[in-house]
Amino acid sequence: MKRGLLMALVVVVALDAAPAPAAEDAYGERRQRMVQEIAAHALSAGNLSGRPALDDRVMAAMARVPRHAFVPEDRRESAYDNRPLPIGYGQTISQPYIVALMTDLLELEADHVALEVGTGSGYQAAILAELVSRVYSIEIIEPLARAAAARLNRLGFDKVATRHGDGYYGWEAYAPFDVIIVTAAASHVPPPLIAQLKPGGRMVIPVGSSFLTQYLMMVEKDSQGRVTNRQILPVRFVPLKGGP
Predict the structure, then answer these.
(1) Which of 11, 74, 100, 103 has a Cα-to-Cα distance from 135 of 20 to 30 A?
(2) Where in the sequence numbering do the catalytic residues fall?
(3) C-alpha to C-alpha distance for 135 and 123, rounded to whole angstroms
(4) Residue 199 belongs to some domain of the structure
(5) Do residues 84 and 121 lie in contact, with contact meaning Cβ atoms separated by under 8 Å?
(6) Is the pTM value of this prediction over 0.85?
(7) Strand 160-164 and strand 134-139: pairing?
(8) Mean pLDDT of the residues in the chain
(9) Total domain count, the chain
């Protein structure tokens, strides 16, 4: 496993072609059903998450971004099921409800700059790009980093910059960040990410091991730089790679 900052790939994606209209119409109906399922799931899990209804802007982003374009071709029929799907290299694209919940917890504003640790297929970065001014996303698995950069470029998500590297250490060149989202489970909240979170900022991260209960955690830094953590709900994520 490579460790430390790996600077081999820095990509800023640009506008490219959109999906064919006929195919997009069919998937659009599926996306609407997915959004309805997310809303129902949010309501049923509201006592745990504290979020029985998710922000309309988040739900609109979930309804716009073509999840089928972020999964392997042989998984596209399942792209709008409310469940995680494998994307290769032992990694997954998260359950749509969890993507929506994590995005909602960040309380995003249009002028925010976001850091994502764990690009995966690029889906979470694309959702963020619908809601903020800039997204910086890091992926430690080089083939996934390359594929996600090309995919985001092809789909026109030009607010996203991606890099192959160890996300445990963040992306110091563009810090501090208004929000940070980590899409793999860490054994602890990485100190470099806390340091790169802006005062008043929020971080959402799953914490725990593969063999014990993981919890989605909300990390907040107040205007004085004091940090507080709170558990949101139990989750299951692939482990965060890298770090010391």
Answers:
(1) 74
(2) 94
(3) 12
(4) yes
(5) no
(6) yes
(7) parallel
(8) 91
(9) 1
Structure tokens at 189: 């909240």
- Residue 56 is encoded by which pair of tokens? 């309309």
- Residue 240 DSSP label: P
pLDDT of 56 above 70: yes
Q: Cα(97)–Cα(103) distance, rounded to whole angstroms?
A: 10
Range of the domain at 194: 9-18+84-235
Whether 38 is covered by a domain: the verdict is: no
Residue 53, in any domain of the structure: no
Q: What is the rounded CA–CA span in Å between residue 140 and residue 72?
A: 19
CATH code: domain of residue 230: 3.40.50.150
Name the one residue in this structure whose structure tokens are 């563009």: 174
Per the structure block, which two tokens stand in for 32?
């609407």
**Is residue 71 assigned to a domain?**
no
Which ranges constitute the DSSP H helices of the chain? 21-44, 46-49, 56-64, 96-105, 123-129, 142-155, 191-196
In DSSP terms, 179 is beta-bridged to: 114, 202
Segment 220-224 mean pLDDT: 96
